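Support reply, case 0932

Customer input (verbatim):
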Amino acid sequence: MNFRPHNQNLIVISEAEHCEFEKLRRNAEYLAKLEHSMQQFKEGKGVAKTMDELLNMEK
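Our regenerated output:
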């Protein structure tokens, strides 16, 4: 008797391995965002702000 939907395989890993995979996934997503931002910057789509302007945006 098969209780898994759609006959999907199941893999068991340790919590530590799971955490490491999640960390790698988040890092990959972050690097992709950085790459996208760099591409936009190269295309002239960036916005320049002074440090004072950035500090004022915090308020």
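We compared this against your earlier run and they match. Two observations from our side: The two ends are 61 Å apart (CA to CA). The first helix runs from residue 15 to 42. Please reopen the case if you see a mismatch on your end.
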